Amino acid sequence: MVTKQVKLLALLSGGLDSTLAVKIVQNLGLDIEAIHFTTPFCLCDKCAVDSINEEFKVKVHHIFLGQEFLDMLTNPSHGYGSQMNICIDCRILMWKKAKELAEKIGAEHFVTGEVLDERPFSQRLPVIRLIEREAGLEGRILRPLSAKLLPETELEREGLIDRQALYSIRGRRRLPQMRLADELNIRDYPCPSGGCLLTDPNFARRLREHMAHEGRPTLDHVALLKLGRHFRLGTTKVIVGRNEGENRVLTSMAEGRGIPCMDVVDFMGPVTLIMGNIKDEIAAKSAAITVRYSDAPRGTPVQVRYINEDEIILTAEAIEDEELEKWRI
Q: What is the CATH number of domain 7-196?
């Protein structure tokens, strides 16, 4: 039982683990607010976060880690995981931001749904302790799902929380968390999906290729990396829309940022963005790629609208697949 008034700040992803952590702390009679981080690579379920805010009556602070995160991505102090994920550096940054917010709202301690050894890159005990140390939060982060397997926190040492009311969950299987959710009457929680695009092999390949040719990404770069089919023609990147929704976004990007673009005049087809040094041969190949993904018949020259300050009409046939694959990223 709590013997004095104490406030905690929870890192809230909206997933089952962090939802359980918030509920456990509430059941112990502790005052709690939450902080929800997003990055340009998040596949987070905002609805799940909002439902926790409504159901548990927990105030949630939303923070977007934008260019600061992208700058860190180019040379992370603690390296990459299996793909381009920088989980350790990301976690340290989140905790530093959480610490700043905690000082403003009067929270002295922190809580997270992390489970020991659930994520091999960032949730092993030596790494957990490293993250706490570098964030300046040693002993101040409660992990109620695995607390009995971890060193005591200040909350436990000061008698503010009974360690026996906490849990000893470990590993990657979610069955213990699902059983606990039933016990705590938590019924509506997201399935174990979502996460971070940086762990996706296909997206990571695109990002590595971008950084190799163009260096540090911007928010605009990341938005484009999520869209379309990508091709590299020398130093020039060609991005081809895959559907009507992507075509709308690519058109908006082209118009708003002055990026040269193409589309086929008389047939349904993609919007194509061309980024980089555009010589005549690059424009011709880009037009042929655009025709390839349109409804125009193969082997038939068709008109392609090319907008680069002025509007120009080019004539092109669909590129052959064998040649196309040479340029695909």
A: 3.40.50.620
